[in-house]
Design a protein that fits this description.
Order of helices and strands: EHEHEHEHEHH
Number of helices: 6
Largest sheet: 5 strands, parallel
Shape: globular
Number of strands: 5
Length: 156
């Protein structure tokens, strides 16, 4: 039984193999991983499941990852969300895109196994540092955030 709160990461990639690879790397690094095969509904999942960071592929058919990253970054309610862009495109291009959309990190798909977990950790840490701890409003705020939502509890 783990007692520390696991950092929740949402992986968004339309490629099943790439998504599974990202999931495996992050699970191994101790993250609680959620997955979407499409960006549709990402914002709802992020809010509902209290996701701390997203790792998203840039090239997706429905909406590009960079466009999604910008939407997420511009959403005031998600100001403390870490965003890591993942792509097989060349790293300079990826870096430029990441800067443009305000991503916290970029990872080349060829370096996934070594670079993804640290990039996500840095993204979460840098967001926490930028936004600071949320203002506490008495004991109720503290207790509600540490309990997983009912949907995450497994029936006995």
């Amino acid at each position: 039984m783990e007692h520390h709160v696991m950092i929740r990461v949402l992986v968004i990639d339309d490629d099943d193999i790439a998504r599974e690879a990202m999931r495996a790397v992050l699970v191994k690094a101790g993250f609680d991983v959620f997955e979407l095969a499409t960006p549709i509904g990402a914002t709802a999942v992020i809010k509902r499941d209290k996701i701390a960071a997203v790792a998203l592929d840039i090239n997706m058919p429905t909406i590009n990852g960079d466009k999604l990253a910008k939407l997420l970054r511009d959403n005031a309610q998600l100001s403390n969300l870490g965003i890591v862009l993942v792509s097989s495109c060349d790293i300079d291009k990826l870096s430029a895109i990441g800067e443009k959309v305000g991503a916290d990190g970029i990872v080349s798909k060829s370096k996934l196994h070594v670079a993804l977990a640290p990039a996500v950790e840095r993204a979460v840490a840098s967001r926490a540092a930028k936004t600071g701890p949320p203002p506490s409003s008495g004991p109720s705020a503290a207790s509600s955030s540490s309990n997983p939502p009912p949907s995450m509890r497994r029936p006995k």
